[in-house]
Amino acid sequence: MYSFGYKKPTAIQKRFIMPFLKGRDVIAQASSGTGKTSAFCVCLLQACDPHTRETQALILSPTRELAVQTQDLCNNIGHHMGLTAYACIGGKSTEEDIRRLESGVHIVSGTPGRVFDMIRRKSLRVNGLKTLVLDEADEMLGKGFKAQIHDIYRMVPPLQIILVSATLPADVLEMTEKFMTEPASILVKRDEITVDSVKQYFVSVDEEKNKFDVLMELYDSLTIAHAVVFCNTRKKVEQLAKKMTREKFAVTAMHGDMPQAERDEIMRQFRNGHSRVLITTDLWARGIDVERVSLVLSYDLPLAREQYIHRIGRTGRMGRTGLAITFVRHDELRLLRDIEQFYATQIEELPANIGEQM
């Protein structure tokens, strides 16, 4: 564990371990970047029996990239324990999934559609499952995945259920009563969800067409190692990427319509530094961890206030400092204040001398 940079458990990890090891269902909420994923991965690995090739844990994630990232963490630690994990995601070869699953893996990390297909084909055998984890649980139990999650739940034996997210709205918590048994709840207050290590600012923009000029001014005044820029639509992602490329920025763009191989290559380029700016939709807002992200810029104000929390959580992770800047049109200021009030946080106007302060 020390070789992966773990020295002592974070607050969420301390509170998570005991109820998990006692076999209880757990609802775990904590700020982004505080170690929720490593908490459940380490516990799952500890609970797995390396002497059988049965799949003993299933982790469901809303995006392919998050499922692969979780697989990699499980494999990096599990390698020392004789345990293996496999990412079962759409956009990859079905035949490869069938071959790997039938050869036996201890932990499956996947997206709901492909996992359901593999269970239906009986390539993913669920008889030995002991634990089901819903990562980014509020997204998994939202409209997009709710039916698929229920289909999978009906196909697995009685097991331990773990829900993990930075944001857990009341309607999601009410829903858990239908399929969880007296869960241990590790919840944080709304005013504790934002991370102190992330400095939050907004920039008031007169008109939509002025945003790009403001962005260029920001880059003139700040030294930015790696940045993630969020837009609300795929079309705007592509348009902004073209504009920044014309200005000689090392930019990549990613959204859900892209083939998986292309998305994987974009992630690789961004992680290894070949690309310094990743422009994306909220596909990238949840769970993805790239160590060197120093700036999260919301080119568009997010459509849902929960997404604001997930976006800014891409920086300032595990105690590192980060900067979050949101572009806000005059007619959107009320929505920004709503986010501030709901999370009891403060989003100040970006100072003119921000470059001197950073």
Cα separation of the termini: 33 Å
Report strand %.
15-25%
- CATH fold group of the largest domain: Rossmann fold
Please compute the radius of gyration using only Cα atoms. Answer: 21 Å
Subunit structure: eIF4F is a multi-subunit complex, the composition of which varies with external and internal environmental conditions. It is composed of at least EIF4A, EIF4E and EIF4G.
Protein name: Probable eukaryotic initiation factor 4A
EC number: 3.6.4.13
GO molecular function, one term: translation initiation factor activity
Keywords:
358 residues, alpha/beta, Rossmann fold, seven-stranded parallel β-sheet, EC 3.6.4.13, ATP-binding, nucleotide-binding, ATP binding, protein biosynthesis
Provide a descriptive summary of the structure in words.
- It is a single chain.
- The protein has 358 residues and is an alpha/beta fold.
- It has two domains: 2-188, 3-Layer(aba) Sandwich (Rossmann fold); 192-357, P-loop containing nucleotide triphosphate hydrolases (Rossmann fold, 3-Layer(aba) Sandwich).
- 38% of the residues lie in helices and 19% in strands.
- It contains 14 helices and 14 strands.
- It has helices spanning 11-21, 36-47, 64-78, 94-103, 112-120, 137-140, 146-155, 170-175, 211-221, 234-246, 260-272, 305-312, 333-343, 354-357, and strands at 26-29, 57-60, 85-88, 107-110, 131-135, 160-165, 184-186, 198-205, 226-230, 251-254, 277-280, 293-298, 322-329, 348-349.
- The strands form two sheets. The protein has a seven-stranded parallel sheet with strand order 3-4-2-5-6-1-7, sandwiched between helices. Strands 10-11-9-12-13-8-14 form a seven-stranded parallel sheet, with helices on both faces.
- Helix 2 crosses helix 3 and helix 5 runs parallel beside helix 7.
- The longest helix has 15 residues, at 64-78.
- The radius of gyration is 21 Å and the shape is globular.
- The mean pLDDT is 88.
- Belongs to the DEAD box helicase family. eIF4A subfamily.
- Residues 17-186 form the Helicase ATP-binding domain.
- It comes from Leishmania donovani.
- Residues 197-358 form the Helicase C-terminal domain.
- It catalyses: ATP + H2O = ADP + phosphate + H(+).
